[in-house]
Amino acid sequence: MPLIYSFLLSYGASQTQCAMICWVITIGGWIADLARLHIPVVHRNWPLSSILREKEHTQLTGGCFFSLGCTLAINLFSPSVATASICFLVVGDMSAALVGVAFGGDACVVKLGREGKKSMEGSVAMFMVCFFTGMVIFHEEPLCEYPVFFGALLATLVEVWEPFALNDNLTIPLMSGLAIHYGFARLEAFHKSGGGVQ
Fold first, then answer.
1. What is the pLDDT of residue 18?
2. For residue range 148-190, what is the model confidence (pLDDT) as tens digits?
3. 152 to each of 97, 115, 172, 183, how far by Cα in Å?
4. What's the DSSP call for residue 89?
5. Higher local confidence (pLDDT), 163 or 85
6. How many domains does one find in the chain?
7. C-beta atoms surrounding 25 within 10 Å
8. CA 55 to CA 52: how far, in whole Å?
9. CB contact at 8 A, 138 and 144
10. 169 occurs within a structural domain
């Protein structure tokens, strides 16, 4: 998703056009998944039913929330902030899962999250990967470590605690994007006020 978004922007597509494409895909996906849940003939013939998680047989899939989260990020934030927040979801969440499964409980027996299924190792891995990814994306921005740190931290906390019991595919890009956006806004206000003058 972030690669396609960057590709479209680099080849002349506007942010509005990218947002429209995302909304078409998202709305189409939600309609299809709602049909799977509520129309028996669609449910019986759903082509991807074998790869659904157990709970997704009776609920919307994570893909619906992933698409909505990415679409809202692209609509609400600048391209760089949207790209970073989506990358936090993609590579950060994946890192938390992989490290949590492989090493969770080895170094720290404390379990995190609403159901106690998240590991400290997975959360640390997610924060580090998100922070590194953000630093790469914003490497040309002065003092970028400030907004990137808080964006990575909020992404990690959202993944662990799942606020409001919402799917983290939706909340990670939104909350981390808000943190990064607010961080850069604070830096800009600081410089405009003369705080950056030596």
1. 93
2. 999 999 999 999 888 878 899 999 999 999 999 999 999 888 8
3. 16, 22, 10, 12
4. I
5. 85
6. 1
7. 14
8. 8
9. yes
10. yes
Contacts of 37 (CB under 8 A, 6+ apart): 43, 58, 59, 60
What separation, in Å, do the N-terminal and C-terminal C-alpha atoms of the chain show?
A: 41
Q: Is residue 20 part of a domain?
A: yes
- Percent of the chain exceeding pLDDT 70 equals 91
Residue 119 phi, psi dihedral angles, 5° rounding: -110, 155
The pLDDT of residue 106 is above 70: no
Instruction: Specify if 116 maps to a domain.
Output: yes
For residues 179 and 158, is the Cβ–Cβ distance under 8 A? no
Nearest CA to 91 out of 156, 10, 39, 32 is that of: 156
- Give the structural domain span for 58: 2-192
Q: What does the block give as tokens for 33?
A: 């998944």
Gap between the Cα atoms of 25 and 54, Å rounded: 24
Q: What stretch of H or E contains 72? A: helix 62-76
Residue 197: inside a domain, yes or no?
no
Query: Is residue 198 pLDDT above 90, yes or no?
Result: no
Q: Among 121, 113, 117, which residue's Cα sits nearest to residue 158?
A: 113
Q: What is the pLDDT of residues 127-148, one digit of tens each?
A: 999 999 999 999 999 899 999 9
Residue with tokens 């994306």: 137
Q: Is the pTM of this model over 0.90?
A: no
